[in-house]
Amino acid sequence: MPYNGQSRDASALETTELTLTTTKTLGNPDKISGLVGVYMKGGVSGDIVAFGFKGPLWSVARATQSWIVGQKIYHSSTNTRVQTNATAATLAGFAAVAKANAATQGCVYLCPISA
Description:
- The protein is mainly beta.
- It has one domain (10-110).
- Helix content is 0%, strand content 42%.
- Strands 1, 2, 3, 4, 5, 6, 7 and 8 form an eight-stranded antiparallel beta sheet that branches.
């Protein structure tokens, strides 16, 4: 089973490289230049890491929420997490598989929608 921050099919995931300005953790969602995505590798300031922004990806939910397949999933920059609540958040993508409340990660199909 894929783990936090890993694509189910790495060849299907679109990524870009970026230089970190602060410490980031593998799998953490973020919004960079208007695109919501997930860090494919953790690192510290100055490290060059891959940032996945389109494709099927396992991502930290950091909330006890259940998802249904196809549900819109949003990125909250306030809480640095993905969630189902659209308030003060940016669309990250859609739930690729269902997620139970107790699960700490879920599979999100990331969509490159600049906001």
